[in-house]
Structures are given as structure tokens and as C-alpha cells.
Design goal:
The structure is a single chain. It contains one helix and ten strands; from the N terminus they run αββββββββββ. It is mainly beta. The protein has a single domain, classed as Cupredoxins -  blue copper proteins (Immunoglobulin-like, Sandwich). A hairpin with a 2-residue loop joins strand 9 and strand 10. The chain starts with 7 loop residues before the first helix and ends with a strand. This is EfeO-type cupredoxin-like domain-containing protein. Keywords: Signal.
């Protein structure tokens, strides 16, 4: 079946639109949080006094599990300013920690040594 010549631009535009939506959103290519079912996963990296992420806002549901994978070159502690406040101690190397927030609001996750806000959890 042959299409009329005037339909060719429409076919071209539709084809380009579909290829633009076909990107690979695999977690390995993403710098932000990833979701796996009901959990949200974030990797925190510490190199000396530098942290990644640094102040990123992440949406999280009430009672949704947040899995933090911490890759650090030295031991430390993160403070989760929720009610009640939570503390996450970590050693040098890679460790995994889970937490949940049971009230809506904005909750900061920060280091006090050095003083850095890593995440702002927008809990809904």
C-alpha cells in the first residue's frame, strides 16, 4: 500500500516523536533516585568532606521504604530530621540502610560532620 505524498511529513513527525520517547531509563544511567516496586533507592557517596547528592529533593510516600546505599571513604553518621529523629551510622566502604517516614512533610537528611544537607525528603 502506498501513502499519498502529502502524508509523508506526518509519518516522519510521528516516527521522530516515538523515537524521542524510547530512551533507556535504567537505574545505572540515572543519577537520581530509583524506584523498585514500593521502595525508593538512593546512593549516597562520601569522598572526604564532599557528598553526593547535595541538597536534592526526593518525593517519598508516607511509610514508603527508602533504601540508602552509602559508599564512603570514611565512617560517619547521617541525621534524619523526622519525628522521631533517626540516625544512620555507617563505616568506611559500602553499606545499605532502610528507613521510613510515617508523617507527611519535608524531612532533611544531613551530616553534621561536615555540616551538609544531602537530601530533602518530601513525604506525602
Amino acid at each position: 500500500m502506498r501513502l499519498p505524498l502529502r502524508a509523508a511529513p506526518l509519518v516522519l513527525v510521528l516516527g521522530l516523536g516515538l523515537t524521542a520517547c524510547g530512551g533507556d531509563d535504567s537505574p545505572a544511567d540515572s543519577a537520581g533516585p530509583t524506584t523498585d516496586g514500593d521502595a525508593v533507592a538512593i546512593t549516597v557517596t562520601r569522598k572526604g568532606d564532599d557528598f553526593t547528592p547535595n541538597g536534592e529533593r526526593v518525593e517519598l510516600g508516607v511509610d514508603q521504604t527508602l533504601t540508602l546505599t552509602i559508599d564512603a571513604d570514611q565512617a560517619g553518621e547521617l541525621h534524619v530530621h523526622s519525628t522521631p529523629e533517626q540516625e544512620i551510622e555507617y563505616d568506611a566502604g559500602t553499606s545499605e540502610h532502610e528507613l521510613t517516614i510515617d508523617r507527611p512533610g519535608v524531612v532533611e537528611v544531613e551530616s553534621h560532620e561536615p555540616d551538609v544537607v544531602l537530601l530533602q525528603l518530601e513525604v506525602r
